[in-house]
Design a protein that fits this description.
Rossmann fold; nucleotide-binding; Small_GTP-bd; GTPase_Der; 32% helix
């Protein structure tokens, strides 16, 4: 019998009177902690369970006393000891700072979290409280100069950016639950013993089952020249270069139609769910048939789900009269059909002849590793501001676009939230420029990038 899974703990810490209890109550949406405008009101550690199904969150939130009691009398020393014991048990720390006042104790406490062996392994999200207005978000430079990597401007009393705080918690919490983890009967969710899950998708008869069999070394799936032989998702686990990978060969994706057979429609839905539950996807293409409308729909589905994927062109051995320029010319034809493919890695192979299968798996493992990339808020803001300055007015509307603050909230897709002066000022060509820069600097080829703009003005 397996033991019950431990609920992660998030502790709110900081010196006295920065608004910890106000934030605690705001996140719980009820008043449990005492909040008054004088230091030292919270003497004990308060804990409460937070359930947020929308973001897949289930954690215990702890409100700690102010950690700056300078003269430790007997009671105060016990309070501090209890608070630091609570912090040491945390899975994530929300470190609260005051926009209008940074004290020497703030710096000393930050230094303690960096150097204390009991604390320096715990992820820390630094929240600058009392950022009550959008223009206040431009006053964060002093906090970046303190070397803080994750900074989030909030207003606990005004509930400003609290939904974003929950998004960041879901992003940073190592044991955060993710959506799409509940599966229907017959589906196999990825387990902690696997490094990642891989789905093989494509049109019927593109060679998906042949590829799965080549990877397994035996006939795991039925192979036939009849399109649609695989009616269901077939999965197996393989070990490659020390990585344990669950691989699923999905039913061939066809055009969804009200007149489609019930079995085909069921297979289509199972394929969609397999994509949703996978970490990485190989989109298999028949080299002889090329990239068609159905393939565009598959790419659209992968983009919508935010799944990292690469394009594997199967049956390359069947292409006649190949020369040194054949692959380059084939790529250019793909790009002309669908320009988005320029942002995707492409490899040719032959599943039947087991050619370049090893190289494809090396690329897949690399893609899985790159898809977990987390960039600190301070680095993102530095990069984005530099790129905005580089773009100048060339990509802008009549009025210059201005980014106030940005932060990452998911890895797959690589999702950034940008707080800006006006959404309408950020034209599509500027957003494409930013995506291109992100892809180049952070090696995100094959990983969907989402830029979400937020502003008090639409």
């Amino acid at each position: 019998m397996s033991s019950k899974k431990r609920v992660p703990i998030i502790s709110i810490v900081g010196r006295q009177n920065v608004g910890k209890s106000t934030l605690f109550n705001a996140l719980l949406k009820k008043k449990l902690a005492i909040t008054e405008d004088y230091p030292g009101v919270t003497r004990d550690v308060l804990r409460a369970r937070v359930l947020n199904p929308e973001r897949g969150l289930d954690f215990i939130l702890a409100d700690t006393p102010g950690l700056d009691i300078e003269r430790p009398e007997s009671l105060e020393e016990a309070v501090l000891e209890n608070a630091f014991r609570q912090v040491a048990e945390s899975d994530l720390v929300v470190f609260l700072l005051d926009l209008h006042e940074v004290t020497s104790y703030d710096s000393r406490l930050i230094d303690k979290f960096r150097k204390d062996p009991e604390l320096n392994q715990i992820p820390v999200l630094y929240c600058v409280n009392k950022v009550d207005h959008p223009e206040d978000e431009e006053d964060l430079d002093s906090f970046y100069k303190m070397g803080l990597s994750e900074i989030l401007p909030i207003s606990a009393i005004g509930r400003r950016n609290l939904p974003l705080l929950l998004e960041k918690i879901a992003f940073l919490l190592p044991t955060a639950k993710r959506k799409n983890q509940t599966t229907e009967e017959g589906e196999t969710p990825s387990t902690s013993t696997e490094d990642f899950s891989l789905a093989i998708v494509g049109k019927p008869n593109a060679g998906k089952s042949s590829l799965l069999n080549a990877l397994c070394g035996y006939d795991r799936a039925v192979v036939s020249e009849v399109a649609g032989t695989t009616r269901d998702s077939v999965d197996t686990t393989v070990t490659f270069d020390g990585k344990k990978i669950r691989i699923t060969d999905t039913a061939g994706i066809r055009r969804k139609s009200d007149k489609a057979e019930a079995l085909e429609f069921y297979s289509y839905q199972r394929t969609k769910r397999t994509i949703e539950n996978s970490d990485v996807v190989i989109h298999l293409l028949d080299a002889l048939k090329g990239f068609g409308e159905f393939d565009k729909k598959i790419v659209g589905m992968l983009q919508e789900e935010g799944k990292p994927f690469l394009l594997a062109v199967n049956k390359w051995d069947a292409i006649e009269d190949k020369d040194n320029d054949s692959f380059k010319n084939y790529q250019e034809r793909l790009y002309s059909r669908f320009p988005l493919l320029r942002e995707i890695q492409i490899i040719t192979l032959s599943a039947k002849e087991k050619q370049r299968i090893h190289k494809m798996m090396e690329m897949t493992i690399d893609l899985a590793a790159r898809s977990k990339k987390k960039i600190s808020t301070s680095e993102l803001n530095q990069s984005l501001r530099a790129w905005m300055a580089e773009a100048g007015r060339s990509f802008s509307a009549n009025k210059p676009p201005k980014m106030l603050y940005c932060t990452q909230v998911s890895v797959s897709p690589f999702h950034l939230i940008l707080f800006v002066n006006h959404i309408d000022y950020f034209k599509s060509n500027l957003l494409a420029f930013i995506k291109k820069k992100l892809t180049e600097k952070y090696n995100l080829k094959g990983i969907p990038i989402r830029l979400e703009l937020r502003s008090d003005r639409k």
